[in-house]
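Re: that backbone. Tokens:
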């Protein structure tokens, strides 16, 4: 009998034949022509008629371009829940016709559309190509009973050193998505944001709310697709500074409001506090031990039934509990879910109104029910009712913040999102599948804003979508494991999320499942995670522990000493952190900063996803290996002070940073001005006075100190004060400028203890004993020299 086994040479021949027969079809698709047959200039755009379809290139700004490719010239679309800016002040622009293309030029960008196939090439003013949208397709499909289109765009990527970032939060441990494929679909631990940022200085916001994909597995081609669409629809943002790219995204989708000052302090949380007495006892112990803390969190099952906002018998006096916590200067956050189960007070009413997406069963005991349901957050009436119940039962008795869990929405035992395959108030669930966390949090944000302007909204959400930042949302990384592997993956996940335009993010410090505070190995992990978490936008511990303890004293006296020291550092940094919060709101800033944001042109940072800047001053280098006493790290182009010793190191170098268990390698950039407040036990214990103003010489520097009433929305009316600082390195002069603005309770006369950081001077967490200069400041400019 003849053998069917192939020799290696015969196998390669057959593969070559197969590839040769396949390539013409692929090449035909890639090189198929859809020529431009005519075009029409409008006030803010050019509409191109192609052989198939219509292409609109709209000039929204001198560095913002909106592209639509539609089967009809009317460019009609379904409602969009993300984009809030639709009217633009069109800048001056011009059109140049050539034999091969038509070029739109603004003051900062050239955009050429090829006549032969409609390819769009984006170029800098010097002619350097950034990227090319080579081809677009709209394929008719029927999805969830709706006649619609599958939208696809084929992008040519120039250069082998380009990096891709953003796209939300994903758990593959990948920092640079060049050569990767990323699904844009919500689920627990993965957050979908269709916003891609390049270190070449541009970003693409893919304006689609259905499940999508950014596929760059063939590294020179980026293939973007969505399951449901009216048109290929995206915005192109040019920086090249990546802060400008992110700012353009927030201009399009909404700005991030400020949180109350308390939210930037330390949060105590675990899975879960089971009674009023337990919560009050933990809060009291924090105060008795003088450990700084501002917030305690009540996780799930404080209710009788899910969807019934009524405390169970273990909380006999909820308002009294809240009042006592407030009296002890604690805030209380509480977990609320979008799910309702039969027997709850609201279930039958909402079911009768048709306000549910789907009824489902929990697969795992003890949480299973026969017909739990998720409310339809795309229904305005359902959102309003949901907030009214939260308001009546919780906000009215003083609850301070909302932990909105499972906002994908997702539940145990079901892999795919609940909206898929269902009709919802907005239309097809498949069309709007990624919108749920945006709309769910919007109902609470808008509800609380309408109820009171005295307390700033704070929402912690397990998922998010483009625009969630305007709802006062912080996302967290979901139900991750309590191990080194998971910890390492959170760092690039958080950094990519930061480049997705939503500035506030956190993790469960120590992981969610599982960990034992009595295990020395887990104690080490928890300490290292906490050290990194100190420089997250929000500092929060959480997790399922055995035994059921997760407070800072639970990890033994040695670990407690380290944890409390970093907690103290967080609180001493509050003047710096709160000023960054204002910069985030007023300038679309990003506080947790991947290195490519500040050192974009340095090719060596393109693949560094485990170091980052926290604001303009701090270079943070987490320790992610057990037993480590040092780690290698890259110092970008600047001079850097070791925060712990004051030793000055030149940048553009790889160094070994000392990392004993009580420290992580932490450096401060030369030219930084860092305001440090006094030791306090909660964020508003007293005004930040005196302020230790640490000046890190070696480059010019600026910083603006921001202060306000610490809560409420008067800051939106201009009720706040700023004090500018400038360091002139050549003149060795610090200028404390005139104060601008005022607010009730403002400290009009204050003390600045100026410290010029140096070896063993102005270092570490503790206040510096001997300031170099002591300045009495009354709001008028003061000049200081060493």
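Recovered sequence:
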């Amino acid at each position: 009998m003849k053998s069917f086994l192939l020799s290696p040479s015969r196998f390669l021949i057959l593969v070559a034949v197969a590839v040769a027969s396949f390539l013409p079809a692929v090449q035909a698709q890639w090189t198929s022509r859809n020529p431009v047959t005519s075009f029409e200039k409008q006030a803010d755009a050019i509409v191109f008629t192609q052989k198939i379809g219509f292409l609109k290139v709209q000039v929204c700004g001198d560095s913002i371009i909106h592209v639509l490719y539609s089967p009809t010239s009317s460019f009609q679309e379904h409602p969009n829940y993300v984009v809030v800016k639709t009217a633009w002040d069109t800048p001056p622009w011009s059109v140049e016709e050539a034999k091969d293309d038509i070029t739109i030029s603004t003051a900062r960008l050239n955009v050429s559309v090829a006549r032969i196939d409609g390819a769009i090439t984006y170029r800098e003013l010097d002619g350097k190509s950034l990227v090319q949208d080579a081809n677009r397709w709209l394929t008719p499909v029927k999805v969830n009973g709706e006649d619609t289109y599958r939208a696809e765009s084929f992008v040519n990527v120039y250069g082998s050193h380009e990096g891709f970032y953003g796209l939300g939060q994903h758990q593959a441990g990948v920092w640079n998505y060049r050569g990767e494929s990323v699904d844009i679909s919500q689920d627990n631990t993965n957050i979908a944001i269709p916003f891609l940022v390049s270190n070449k200085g541009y970003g693409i916001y893919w304006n689609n709310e259905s499940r999508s994909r950014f596929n760059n597995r063939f590294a020179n081609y980026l293939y973007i697709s969505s399951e449901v669409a009216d048109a290929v629809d995206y915005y192109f943002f040019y920086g090249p500074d990546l802060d400008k790219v992110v700012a353009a995204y927030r201009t399009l989708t909404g700005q991030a409001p400020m949180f109350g000052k308390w939210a930037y302090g330390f949060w105590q949380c675990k899975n879960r506090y089971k009674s009023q007495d337990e919560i009050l006892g933990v809060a009291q112990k924090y105060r008795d031990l003088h450990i700084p803390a501002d917030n305690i969190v009540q996780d799930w099952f404080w209710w009788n039934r899910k969807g019934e906002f009524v405390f169970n018998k273990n909380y006999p006096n909820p308002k009294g509990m809240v009042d006592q916590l407030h009296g002890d200067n604690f805030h209380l956050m509480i977990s609320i879910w979008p799910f309702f189960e039969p027997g709850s007070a609201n279930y039958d009413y909402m079911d009768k109104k048709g306000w549910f997406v789907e009824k489902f069963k929990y697969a795992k005991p003890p949480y299973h029910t026969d017909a739990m349901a998720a409310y339809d957050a795309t229904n305005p009436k359902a959102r309003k009712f949901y907030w009214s119940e939260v308001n009546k039962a919780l906000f009215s008795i003083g609850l301070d913040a909302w932990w909105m869990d499972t906002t994908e929405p997702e539940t145990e035992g079901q892999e795919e999102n609940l909206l898929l395959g269902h009709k919802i108030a907005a239309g097809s669930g498949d069309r709007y599948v990624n919108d749920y966390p945006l709309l769910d949090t919007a109902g609470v944000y808008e509800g609380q804003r309408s109820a009171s302007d005295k307390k700033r909204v704070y929402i912690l959400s397990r998922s998010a979508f483009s625009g969630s930042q305007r709802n006062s949302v912080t996302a967290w990384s979901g139900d991750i494991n309590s191990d080194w592997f998971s910890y390492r993956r959170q760092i690039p996940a958080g950094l990519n999320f930061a480049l997705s335009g939503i500035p506030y993010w956190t993790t469960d410090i120590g992981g969610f499942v599982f960990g034992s505070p009595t295990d020395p190995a887990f104690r080490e992990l928890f300490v290292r995670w906490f050290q990194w978490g100190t420089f997250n936008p929000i500092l929060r511990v959480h997790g399922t522990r055995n035994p059921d303890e997760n407070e800072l004293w639970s990890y033994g006296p040695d670990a407690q000493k380290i944890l409390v020291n970093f907690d103290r550092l967080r609180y001493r940094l509050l003047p710096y952190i709160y000023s960054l919060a204002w910069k985030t709101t007023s300038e679309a800033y990003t506080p947790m900063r991947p290195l490519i944001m500040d050192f974009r042109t340095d090719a060596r940072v393109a693949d560094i996803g485990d170091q980052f800047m926290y604001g303009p001053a701090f270079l943070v280098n987490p320790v992610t290996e057990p037993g480590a006493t040092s780690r290698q790290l890259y110092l970008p182009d600047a001079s850097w002070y070791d925060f712990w010793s004051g030793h000055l190191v030149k940048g553009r170098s790889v160094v070994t940073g000392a990392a004993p268990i009580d420290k992580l390698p932490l450096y401060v950039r030369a030219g930084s001005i860092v305001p440090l407040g006094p030791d306090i036990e909660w964020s508003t214990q007293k005004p930040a006075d005196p302020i230790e103003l640490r000046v890190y010489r070696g480059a010019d520097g600026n910083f603006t100190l921001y202060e306000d009433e610490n809560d409420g929305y008067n800051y939106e009316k201009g009720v706040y004060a700023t004090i500018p600082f400038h360091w002139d390195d050549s003149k060795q002069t610090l200028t404390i400028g005139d104060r601008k603005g005022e607010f009730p309770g403002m400290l009009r006369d204050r003390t600045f203890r100026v410290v010029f950081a140096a070896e063993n001077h102005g270092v570490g967490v503790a206040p510096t004993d001997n300031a170099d200069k002591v300045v009495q400041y009354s709001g008028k400019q003061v000049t200081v020299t060493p």
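The chain is about 20% helix and 30% strand. The mean pLDDT is 94.
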